[in-house]
Amino acid sequence: MTQDILIEPVSDTVANTSLAAKKVFIKTYGCQMNVYDSGRMSDALGQEGYTQTDNVEDADLVLLNTCHIREKAAEKVYSALGRLREMKKERQAQGREFTIGVAGCVAQAEGEEITRREPAVDVVVGPQTYHRLPQALKRVRNGERVVDTDYAVEDKFEHLPQAPKPKLVIRQVTAFLTVQEGCDKFCTFCVVPYTRGSEVSRPVEQIVAEAENLVSNGVRELTLLGQNVNAWRAKGPGGKTWGLGELLYRLAEIPGLARLRYTTSHPRDMDDRLIEAHRDLRMLMPYLHLPVQSGSDRILKAMNRRHKASEYVALIERIREMRPDIALSGDFIVGFPGETDADFEATMELVRTVGYAQAYSFKYSTRPGTPGADLPDHVAEEVKTERLARLQELLLQQQKQFAEACVGKEIDLLLEKPGRNAGQLIGRSPWLQSVNVDAKTSQIGDIIRVRITSTGSNSLFAEMAES
Ligand code: 5AD
Ligand code: SF4
User: Fold this and answer.
1) Are strands 460-464 and 447-455 parallel, antiparallel or unpaired?
2) Chain centroid to CA 419: how far?
3) Which ligand places an atom closest to the C-alpha of 1?
4) Packing angle between helix 32-46 and helix 133-141, nearest 10 degrees?
5) What is the pLDDT of residues 423-436, one digit of tens each?
6) Which of 213, 250, 337, 417 is the most buried (most CB within 10 A)?
7) 100 — phi, psi (to 5°)?
């Protein structure tokens, strides 16, 4: 969730294909929701005649789609902006245009402050206002500097262009679809309720239409996104309120769609219907990212997570009863203010009890404006470092065990893209692992039966199964 993702050009489709078409370079930091937003910004700019480039040297416009979740993530943006300022100077000396934009959660949290700290920035748009990017750029061309982070009263989703039919050499087999945004949970460490605002769910018809459009463009696997995706609620046909479980049953009816996933969830919103969907829908992949953050009830309370460690473990047991092959993933924070050795040991114990296939773990990072920042007893950096190392060792060991237990198994593999070697493709296992297998490019998008033969450092190897 924290890796930097450099967005590849999604499409070379533009309304205005003159030779002088402007180029945009988008750098995406942070979570999958930012990846989705970068795609939509690219679509909106495509309608204005921009093409996307993966070479910053070619760009007329550089957009940083930023993350504010931890201090390090936010600081990265300012160092990138320092480098862009130098590029802008060189370009201006050559009489060439170079526009710098900041989007995403740092933009939302810091607004005007960004242009004060880095005057080379021309435009700042928040996660709720990026649909107005084309208008903002017009104002920039007229010599203005634009900071547009006011929450839109209107629903931004209604103003986003549908992704154009991609003219891709390689077909896009998996896609993200944002169904929910924002958070009302107010965990005391987290900036999301302040940067992304309160929970908003997209209407059923909008989601179904976007899903159908993606599937008609060749997508076979959809990952529904939301900061609190399982808090999604909307009116279904007939006026009954639907939760995420109901939505999954509906999406599972789309012809041609083969796989569904969703992320990220809060334990308190795992309702019965959603758990039943895991039992009933074979196309809902047996993989669940369900962050717990800590295994200590005292710390969970201070974090305002509003559940106990034992309730989380009981929930996992119920889900496993319904879907025995489910693999778990989680997020953990070490060194939250007041965390003692005993609290940390409780986290280690919870990890041993649950057994994770995959996990993300972080040192607590103080975020200004969140209640956690004002708590007493902040934990020393060395203690956080030592706890994180111990936790990560345990999680890595579990991840390896999970991968090794896959060796010899026959699984369904969705073939996604070319592998490193000619004649090889990379596919996804039901548990989100990358799997290398000998197959033809024409098979991209197919689901094939393979047997896992061995594990690599970050992926698995497989051969075609005989059955
Ligand atoms: N410090 C460290 N980790 C954090 N996360 C969120 N806020 C903070 C913070 N202030 C982690 C949580 C969350 C994930 C997306 O990032 O584990 O689930
Ligand atoms: Fe942040 Fe908690 Fe909301 Fe997740 S549930 S986005 S951790 S406040």
Assistant:
1) antiparallel
2) 23
3) 1
4) 60
5) 999 999 999 999 99
6) 337
7) -115, 125
